């Protein structure tokens, strides 16, 4: 099992400036490399405190690539619906070279109505635009003199420059929130998978992963050659009670900001996003203790967090990796540094040795 560090800036500008946020992410990325974490990754969101400090993950990850030399650089995820595939494939190919082949590319469908409105993209087209964008990037990376005739874009013949550092292209991950069908499609295509347990039940997530593994095998891909990345927020402190206090505070911050970002879905501003229209109700009923017991968030001293991860591995499979957010909201830098160090010292070795 590998462990990486996830940066999802759910931050109010009144609490922390963008400059301070980026500086802290840079410092924590250097620390992640020092401590032996496998990757650093970030998101693509716009406008609101819910991730809006990262409208272009490629820009931020390029800076992180320049400050590190070993840790992998991961988009988690870029949204093809908002960028022409020639532009997106070219930017990512550049980052693959700048990082000397350390790039993993996660693609996401997007789900925030305000973002689709700003880009003048109907949400009803999100699934189709996502699928076309991923495949267009893959072919741009791996083919020469490409002629593309899609539903949303047509171009060619073109040969992308630069060609990716990794051949035929960087590893592709598909981000899926709730859909077994999306997971199965990723498995059939031979792509890797990114999932977020906070918006699903354990049973639903188990079904998604089963669909992915089954589709992978049925498509004839090499057994076990896939990578499944599961994302959690992680609060670790020397004192168990302190970690729980931090978790209670910053998980509530996350849930409240996400509720505001997805609120238009409750009014029908979108299509084919099952469950999101009820998110306001879930926020009103949110309980940190319940979430903790369900292993939707990791929190506690190192022994407690290790027990949680063991339970997650038993429930979801021994073939998963974890991407961990140690610096949620406007958490103090030293609290995040302490959590990363404690986790690397006391938790990570237990699962590395088991592997």
Walk me through this protein's architecture.
Helix 1 (18-35) links the parallel strand 1 and strand 2. This protein has helices at 18-35, 57-67, 85-98, 113-118, 126-142, 180-189, 202-218, 240-266, 279-284, 288-293, 302-316, 333-354; strands spanning 3-7, 39-42, 72-78, 103-107, 146-149, 154-158, 172-176, 192-195, 228-236, 298-300, 320-325. The radius of gyration is 19 Å and the shape is globular. Helix 1 (18-35) packs across helix 2, helix 3 (85-98) crosses helix 5 (126-142) and helix 6 packs parallel to helix 7. It has 355 residues and is an alpha/beta fold. The longest helix is centred in the C-terminal third of the chain and has 27 residues, at 240-266. Helices cover 48% and strands 16% of the residues. The model has no long low-confidence stretch (mean pLDDT 94). It has 12 helices and 11 strands. It has an 8-stranded parallel beta barrel, surrounded by 9 helices. Its EC number is 1.-.-.-. One of its GO terms (molecular function) is oxidoreductase activity.
Give a quick summary of the entry.
By secondary structure, this protein is of the alpha/beta class.
Task: Set out the fold topology.
Elements: E1 3-7, H1 18-35, E2 39-42, H2 57-67, E3 72-78, H3 85-98, E4 103-107, H4 113-118, H5 126-142, E5 146-149, E6 154-158, E7 172-176, H6 180-189, E8 192-195, H7 202-218, E9 228-236, H8 240-266, H9 279-284, H10 288-293, E10 298-300, H11 302-316, E11 320-325, H12 333-354
Parallel strand pairs: 1-2, 1-11, 2-3, 3-4, 4-7, 7-8, 8-9, 9-10, 9-11
Antiparallel strand pairs: 5-6
Helix pairs in contact: 1-2, 1-12, 2-3, 3-5, 6-7, 11-12
């Amino acid at each position: 099992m590998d462990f990486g560090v996830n940066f999802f800036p759910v931050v109010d500008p009144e609490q922390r400036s963008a400059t301070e946020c980026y500086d802290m992410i840079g410092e924590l990325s250097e620390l992640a490399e020092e401590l032996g974490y496998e990757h650093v990754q970030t998101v693509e969101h716009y406008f609101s405190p819910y991730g809006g400090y990262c409208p272009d993950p490629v820009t931020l990850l390029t800076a992180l690539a320049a400050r590190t030399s070993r840790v992998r650089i991961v988009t988690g995820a870029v949204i093809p619906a908002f960028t022409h595939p020639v532009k997106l494939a070219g930017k990512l190919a550049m980052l693959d070279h700048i990082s000397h082949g350390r790039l993993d590319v996660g693609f996401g469908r997007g789900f925030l109505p305000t973002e689709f409105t700003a880009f003048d993209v109907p949400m009803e087209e999100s699934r189709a635009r996502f699928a076309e964008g991923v495949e267009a990037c893959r072919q741009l990376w791996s083919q020469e003199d490409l002629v593309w005739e899609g539903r949303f874009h047509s171009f060619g013949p073109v040969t992308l420059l630069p060609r990716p550092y990794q051949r035929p292209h960087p590893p592709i991950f598909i981000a899926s929130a709730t859909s077994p069908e999306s997971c199965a499609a990723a498995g059939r295509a031979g792509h890797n998978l990114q999932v977020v347990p906070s918006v699903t039940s354990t049973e639903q997530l188990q079904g998604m992963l089963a669909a992915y593994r089954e589709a992978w095998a049925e498509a004839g891909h090499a057994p076990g050659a896939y990578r499944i990345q599961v994302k959690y927020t992680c609060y670790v402190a020397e004192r168990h009670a302190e970690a729980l206090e931090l978790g209670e505070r910053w998980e509530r911050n996350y849930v409240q900001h996400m509720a505001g970002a997805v609120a238009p879905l409750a009014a029908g501003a979108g299509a084919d996003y099952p469950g999101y229209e009820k998110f306001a109700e879930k926020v009103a009923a949110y309980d940190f203790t319940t979430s903790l017991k369900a292993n939707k968030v990791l929190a506690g001293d190192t022994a407690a967090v290790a027990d949680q991860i063991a339970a997650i591995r038993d429930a979801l499979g021994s073939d998963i990796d974890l991407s961990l957010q140690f610096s949620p909201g406007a958490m103090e830098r030293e609290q995040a540094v302490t959590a990363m160090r404690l986790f690397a010292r006391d938790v990570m070795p237990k699962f590395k040795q088991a592997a």
